[in-house]
Amino acid sequence: MNILEVSQITKHFSGLVALDNISFNVNKSEIVGLIGPNGAGKTTLFNIIAGSLKPTRGKISFDGKNITGLPTNRICRLGLARTFQIPKPFEDLTVLQNIEMAEMFGHATGEGKKRVGSPMEICEIVGLSPKNETLARILSASDKKRLEVARALATSPRILLLDEFAAGLSAQESEWASSFVKDMQRSFELSIIWIEHVMRILMKNVDRVFVLDHGVKIAEGTPKEVVNNAKVLQAYLGGSA
Ligand SMILES: Nc1ncnc2c1ncn2[C@@H]1O[C@H](COP(=O)(O)OP(=O)(O)O)[C@@H](O)[C@H]1O
Ligand SMILES: [Mg+2]
């Protein structure tokens, strides 16, 4: 059964067509990968799904409810959370305070949502408990990524949108990120849309992949189907494929 339905989403930025008639569904408890070269429109699509941008045309349904154009906090409270490509914590709050703020923003109960845990438990889940009193501004880049996902989990999501979660992490941290996402999905029955450039990690963890290029969906299928798709190879290799 679908939890999210993206129908014919188009987004214009003055002259630029950032997204052109994009449709896809995400099933309950499914991990879907979203890939495409830089500038393909991936983050713009997340912004539209999460409510921080309005589409020029098209509709987003979450659990059968039309959420197109609703404000971000309403969408979050329904159970849709996202992380940012560049983490956006409150720099002058501690790790724990950041997680508490996120919990308030997401109103952890209601709407059939299951609480992932208390803020302290979430610190533990993401491996930040030794740093729960540390100010966000002095965290390392990889710890900021952990805090970013902790804040998303604190809103008790049913679907999680991850924007380049493993980007900028070391090989070892990427392995952690990879098994972490899978564990989250299983433990909390999450649906996930996962944007990632680290193909090796994405491909072994997702059920299906969608590929955007210049705002157009050029392919979808299993990871194996997609990596062998001529259009996808061409988009990534710039015509030399
Ligand atoms: N707020 C905005 N105003 C104008 N152009 C934008 C805006 N956000 C994104 N774009 C443009 O839309 C295109 C898609 O960007 P983006 O969604 O960030 O791509 P991706 O995440 O796939 O790298 C790019 O050409 C980008 O410059
Ligand atoms: Mg992006």
Largest sheet: spatial strand order: 6-7-8-3-9-10
Bound molecules: adenosine-5'-diphosphate, magnesium ion
Order of helices and strands: EEEHEEHEHHHEHEHEEHH
CATH architecture of the domain at 2-86 and 157-237: 3-Layer(aba) Sandwich
What is the CATH domain class of the domain at 2-86 and 157-237?
Alpha Beta
Which descriptors would you attach to this protein?
241 residues, alpha/beta, Rossmann fold, 6-stranded mixed beta sheet, 4-stranded antiparallel beta sheet, binds adenosine-5'-diphosphate, binds magnesium ion
Describe the structure.
There is one protein chain. This protein has 241 residues and is an alpha/beta fold. The chain has a domain at 2-86 and 157-237: P-loop containing nucleotide triphosphate hydrolases (Rossmann fold, 3-Layer(aba) Sandwich), CATH 3.40.50. It is built from 9 helices and 10 strands. The strands form 2 sheets. It has a 6-stranded mixed beta sheet with strand order 6-7-8-3-9-10, sandwiched between helices. Strands 2-1-4-5 form a 4-stranded antiparallel beta sheet, covered by helices on one side. The longest helix has 18 residues, at 171-188. The model has no long low-confidence stretch (mean pLDDT 93). The chain binds adenosine-5'-diphosphate (ADP) and magnesium ion.
